[in-house]
């Protein structure tokens, strides 16, 4: 072990042991790391690379941890490492390395491990606020902490950090502020904590993130105000509900509503504010001005009021009658559709055998067509046409020859008869001439 410590830096050694498979090795590494941080931070200090190596090991130490109760204990121990730093610069470097590591590793976290890392982020934010509370909420330290959040989480740029981390921080921001600084936080310090979100709303291009920030931060401030609580009590009394909620758990941060309204108004009228975000910001300005005047703002859209166009009973009754007529018409249409479907099913059942026969004939035709197409694929269509033409021509020529032969038959018979007659006459002439010659020879012999 001593040889390994000499060969490689201590931060790499701790990172390997913190990411071990066995729980005993991880627990020992966390205890040794606590002592190492307290000694190193007082003497030499850590660099940014050293902090990133340490948080890499701590991240995978949390990754390997199983079971909910064990995960809660580990999240507490890891977040409590912040209290080991006596130097403010080293403490903020530790916080910066934590958020940098979470932004880098966020997309590699699966859905089964996401909850414990969100719990770790909440615990670290809690410890950061406790550190600021111990320092008595010094403005310089508060701004230094908020600059880290603006760099990685509360930012309008897409490259700052993942949206999931931004949404999660908006969910826990007011809860952790109220749990740590209910009694000690003053309105001017609370205004400093709200300024990063005010500036983000003016430049953020993600409309879903803007609406989430409005609902989870600014509207929560309105609902948690004294005027908002009085309004909720009146509504619960009118509805006859019993008040079983614990009022001590609700946050009671004291905000200066006029300063919030003025800050939002100044940012909205600037050139850097996006035009599509201005309506939401001006709506918040009006709401905070109403709160400062002691009026609970309603959820209606600005510029619309129910007193201008009240609904009378006659109009209400007419609307009810129209709705009933529409419902009756809808029922009639449904009945007619059902009748048509039943008639079509009966007609279809009668025409099924005919359709089957037609289908068979179609199948036969398709088979014949497939055979013909196969033949056509083997031999080109032009040659077939020539063959057919040649066959037709040969048939027609043979028929023409037969006709010619039949016509010429009569003429040949006549010619043959004439030739026969001529032959007979010629033969007779020859015979006569032979007889003459024979008679002359006979006369010579007699002599």
TrEMBL record:
Positions with biased composition (Basic residues): 331-340
Keyword Calcium: no
Positions with biased composition (Basic and acidic residues): 341-354, 388-411
Region (Disordered): 228-251, 327-447
Keywords assigned: Nucleus, rRNA processing
InterPro entries according to UniProt: RRP1 (IPR010301)
GO biological process: rRNA processing
Superkingdom classification of source: Eukaryota
The species this protein was found in: Lingula anatina
Gene Ontology cellular component annotations, sorted alphabetically: nucleus; preribosome, small subunit precursor
Compositional bias annotation for Acidic residues: 229-245
Sequence similarity: Belongs to the RRP1 family.
Subcellular location as annotated: Nucleus
Principal location class: nucleus
Alphabetical list of Pfam families matching this protein: Nop52
Protein known as: Ribosomal RNA processing protein 1 homolog B isoform X5
Keyword NADP appears in the UniProt entry: no
